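[User]
Um, tokens okay?
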Amino acid sequence: RDKGDCALRYSLTQHGQATLTWRFIKPDYINTDLTTAVVYCPTIPSLARWYKHSHRMSWIEMARQLAVEEVIFCDDQDYLLESNQSNLFALLGNELITPPFQNNFLPGITRQALLDFASQLNLRVVEQSIHLKKDYDALFLTSTLKELSYVKSIRYRGTIITFDKHDYIKRWQKKFHQYLQSLSTSPINHY
């Protein structure tokens, strides 16, 4: 009997032992609104990627302790990199902004799908750093499990930054979900 989509994770331990885990994805998990908090991360090239993935359970626990859904990594100059489970995007006017791919984060399949889909939303893609203190219209995160999730707030040094363009993002979420569904039924694209 079909119970919906599943998330699969294939992992290798330090000693080369493989594990495969799975769980059902709750339908209300897709396109959720998120609260987030900033966590500072080392800016040494390629260390951030290692830092993020080798401490995954610590980030999940930190998010729980901060009473947020995800933490967003920030460098020492207040540039946002990505979250503990997702890639980051900002909206400013008709520009879809995402940090340029470098060795300090993973590019993400859903990130690339949104970059490909942006023209259907009449958005110009700009790959540039996202500064925490710039006044963006909206921030959101992409991942295979969440698809396109709106960031409703960020906790930062005792303050909460909120975003208001929620209705616009909701329309995108529906269109983007349909786009991703069409990809899942078409021949495999290799990015």
In short: The longest helix spans residues 166-184. The first strand starts at residue 6 and ends at 12.
